[in-house]
Design goal:
mainly alpha, about 0% strand, about 45% helix, elongated
């Protein structure tokens, strides 16, 4: 499996780490392209909820990979929405993630 999906189990993540380390490499980060489809900056509540769940899964996955941080693009430009509103929506989603008020 070249990358993990939301359905990838922790056991599969640990196996990916083992394979990487057996090749003499290290996992450098936990990132995903899923936020292009599920941005935290969207006005659509269900899409934003899925984006938040993706961040949660990234954080869950970082631990078995031996990482203490993730790469997150918090704003995906939507032409129909003002930049300042997108920034505020992203900041609100991040605040909820940090405070646990999901």
């Amino acid at each position: 499996m070249p990358w993990f999906q939301m359905s990838t189990t922790d056991a599969e993540v640990r196996e990916m780490r083992r394979k990487v380390e057996c090749a003499g490499l290290a996992v450098s980060n936990v990132s995903t392209g899923l936020h292009w489809r599920y941005p935290l900056s969207t006005r659509e509540p269900e899409i934003r909820r899925q984006g938040i769940r993706i961040v949660e899964r990234q954080l869950e996955t970082a631990q078995p990979l031996g990482r203490d941080a993730i790469l997150l693009v918090v704003l995906v430009a939507e032409m129909a929405q003002a930049w300042d509103q997108q920034f505020c929506d992203s900041a609100t989603a991040m605040d909820r993630l940090i405070s646990g008020r999901l």
